[in-house]
Fold this sequence. Notes:
This protein is of the alpha/beta class. It has seven helices and seven strands. 29% of the residues lie in helices and 16% in strands. The strands form two sheets. The protein has a four-stranded mixed beta sheet with strand order 4-5-6-7, with helices on one face. Strands 1-2-3 form a three-stranded parallel beta sheet.
Amino acid sequence: TPPDPGRPVRFAFGSCTFPAPPHASFDAMARLAPDFFVHLGDLGYPHSHRHAAATASPDAYEDRWARLLAQPSFRRLQGVAPIVLAADDHDLGKNNCWARTCLPWPQAAFATIHANPDRSFCSFRWGDVELFLLDVRRSSDDPDLPDGSSKSRLGAEQKRWLLRGMAASDAGLLVVASPSPLRTRVTEDPSWEAAFAHERQELLASFLDRPQRVVIVSGDAHGTR
């Protein structure tokens, strides 16, 4: 049950979970008992494992996810916190995929393991926090196109939804959860900073214009290493 207004909210987030245990981060988060946990994509890397080419099917992906989610460390976290799952490129069948290269059948398979709303982006309110979960793959333009005002990682519909939703929110803290980071030193990935710089600046300007504090959480680039 979400807390009453004015009460503290604690949440955890992570991404890029390889299937083999141990998963010390899940154990640590379970001990902290957050109000909710957001996984920002690349859950078990079904696209990247050594038998991926031979097992490219919904059943194989679902099996990969189910085995990871059933591991004791994840079950302990699931026992204390609601779980929100976002899909990123390795959940969608192709590294660094965008609208035309994300495969359709992994999207349908991923939909069987989460309880998010039907569309790939969504928001929810938890006490004084409102979180906006982005999809940075399935509506994205080709990262290799020249940058400019018409190039988008979110697509027009999702960007309108995000900016209007943030402007309408009266939550004390707005959290933007993006599977891909808005800033990273990992240059080999087509990041917001490298491939969608114009849209990145547009978003950051809008975030700074909000009366509330905006926190961005992200995954994908492994930059914290």
